[in-house]
Amino acid sequence: RLFKNDPVRDPQLMTRSERPCNAETPPEKLTDDFVTPNNLFFVRNHLPVPEMDAHVEIEFDAPWMPDTVKVSLEDLKRKYEHLDVMTTLQCAGNRRKEMHDAKPVKGLQWTQGAISNAVWTGVPLKKVIEDVCGPIPKEYEDKLQHVHFHGAEGYGASIPIAKALDPRGDVLITFKMNGTELPRDHGGPVRALVPGHVAARSVKWVSKITLAEDESESHWQRRDYKGFGPSKTLEESKYEDSLSIQEMPVQSCITVPQPGQVVDVNQRAVDSRDEKSVAVKGYAWSGGGRGIVRVDVSGDGGKTWIDAKLRRPGQQQGREWAWTHWEANVPIPENSLNGGKGSVEIVCKAVDTSYNEQPEKMESVYNVRGVLVSAWHRVKVEGIL
Ligand code: MTE
Ligand code: MO
User: Fold this and answer.
1) Where in the cell is it found (predicted)?
2) Quick check: CB of 299 below 6 Å from ligand 1?
């Protein structure tokens, strides 16, 4: 079978499809550790996991180069400085199931676990390109717009050259994840890592890197991972006219409690008021290196809000690639607990360093592919006193 060489996965992962493997991190595990353990990092594969050994060579190509140049992974490791970059990767389809439940969409039914955070070790792509491809000739300076990554199993994607060559962009050719060899499911032995961009651009098992005038021709760059208007059907959605997703919008989710859970509504001091409250936890993240400045949490469906306590990665401004974890004791209105029991809706929304906020309604950001799901996250629980 095609998939017989796929690695064995942790049974704790929540499988959305077996072949290829698509599996999400269990929601409460997302906020157990700030850095997601490798075995619990979500997996999103389009094809079987390829066999690649550690002696692999990466091929480089640019329009002015007479021939492509191959550089072994060993040489890359030996010649360049190793950088550790903490980066959250989020799939464009994270939370698709919520959108699907509002109105049907096409794609894997991810809940909120198609996102994880890790420390990636690698060499700076910018330095490697400058060395291997040389300085960009004058006549290509304006024309050259994209860097393509080719995956050994046939997947491919590209990113804007401005991101690839930005010394503060932290794009890596990575070979370690959380201090250990890159696991095969996450691109081992070598992967392109594009912090702040949709995970689809961090191409696993990268075997070729091309500097080009146009975007990658791959299906996943041209015919997937694009947004459309809320009323467009699949037939009316014109991929050629829509922009490829790169940086992602601001996002947040409640990880604890989970929908339908019975929660204890304790007496707790919140903002020095004496109210009933529920303990809530979650994550927040934004694309493009924008950090999270605030997470607003509501226990009355979005009428009143409190600020969550944030645990931020402490990365430099503009390079906040990792998520923020947050916690709050959310006040619950007394009248929702008639007889000491009742259903409660908890809502969260995050604000990023550009003061972008999540939209309130799923309907307003609906798109038929179910990508870029960023509406306020709502969780209904049973509260008991
Ligand atoms: N790279 C290759 N070669 N093949 C793939 O199928 N999937 C992409 C991206 N890179 C993919 C890939 C998508 S859509 C996502 S969301 C991330 O890898 C998932 O990365 P992970 O499996 O390490 O979580
Ligand atoms: Mo993805």
Assistant:
1) Mitochondrion intermembrane space
2) no
- The model's pLDDT over 48-79, given as tens digits with 9 standing for 90+, comes to 999 998 899 999 999 999 999 999 999 999 99
Global pTM value: 0.97
Q: Are 83 and 233 in contact (CB under 8 A)?
A: no
Ligand 1 atom index nearest CA of 43: 22
155 lines ligand 1 (CB under 6 A): yes
Helix (H, G, I), strand (E, B) or coil at 380: strand
Q: Of the bound ligands, which one is closest to the alpha carbon of residue 115?
A: 1
- ipTM above threshold 0.90: yes
CATH 2.60.40.650 assigned to 251-384: yes
- 199 CB less than 6 Å from ligand 1? yes
Write b or e for each residue in 151-190: b if 16 or more Cβ atoms lie within 10 A of its Cβ, otherwise e.
bbbebbbbbbbebbbeeebbbbbbbbbbeeebbbbbbbbb
Ligand nearest to the CA of 203: 1
Residue spans in the chain of domains classed CATH 2.60.40.650? 251-384
Residue 120 is inside which H or E element, if any? Answer: strand 115-124
